[in-house]
Fold Sigma-70 family RNA polymerase sigma factor.
Amino acid sequence: MIELINMYRKNKLEIKSLKLRKDICYDEIDNWGAVDISGGRMGKKHDFLTRIKQTDNVIDELNVINDRLETLQNRQKKIIEVIDKFEGLEHKILRLRFIDGYKIADIAEELGYSEQYIRNKHCELMKRIEFKMSHEYKVY
């Protein structure tokens, strides 16, 4: 479970990075100007064939980015499905802590419990998850 949560966090960062790269690609397409009459900034310095080639390269990169984004977003959904198997307060704590990125104090305030109570519940939950995971994957 802890590995899934760590993967979720890493995926979340990679998704942000890919979305930024995607925005940069769209800016590049505009700069090369092969898709509009104005020619873009870079298009004025290069012939039409060069602009088309450069735009095609950027579109290829966009396709790779979109494929990776789809893979990561599907993985994120599956991780959330695992977390959603927990119920009640445990589910709320896991979701707020690891999916929404809340701190323990913020979770306590959000749920109307003392910070110490949530801290204890969180610690207990993590021990249970680690114990369960270590026994599920034990090699005999």
Summary: The chain has two domains: 1-85, 87-140. Residues 1-85 form one domain. The mean pLDDT is 84.
